[in-house]
Specification:
The chain has five helices and no strands. It is mainly α and 90 residues long. Helix 1 packs antiparallel against helix 3. The two termini are 20 Å apart.
């Protein structure tokens, strides 16, 4: 699913931005670093894509991508997965 590839690319850039923000420990630990805990844009786009493409189909593709994703890159994708509605079809 091509949209998952785009979301993963966005998540990789999010991870890089957070890594750079964490480099300045003083700003990071005082909550003044210029990075969000979660990239709301990625999560929102994932939820919109799920609605457009079908939640069950999208969830399966997202979980497959999450299995190959590590570190900070997985945060916005994992949050999107947790926020997907339960369709009752497992």
């Amino acid at each position: 699913m091509i949209v998952i590839g785009h979301l993963r690319t966005m998540a990789q850039r999010y991870s890089t931005a957070v890594d750079l923000a964490m480099a300045n420990k003083r700003l990071w630990f005082n909550g003044a670093a210029s990075a969000d805990v979660c990239d709301v844009d990625i999560t929102t786009l994932a939820l919109i894509a799920a609605r457009a493409l079908g939640v069950d189909h999208f969830r399966a593709a997202l979980r497959s991508a999450l299995a190959e994703t590590t570190g900070l890159e997985s945060v916005p994708l994992g949050i999107a997965d947790a926020m997907l509605p339960d369709t009752g079809r497992g």
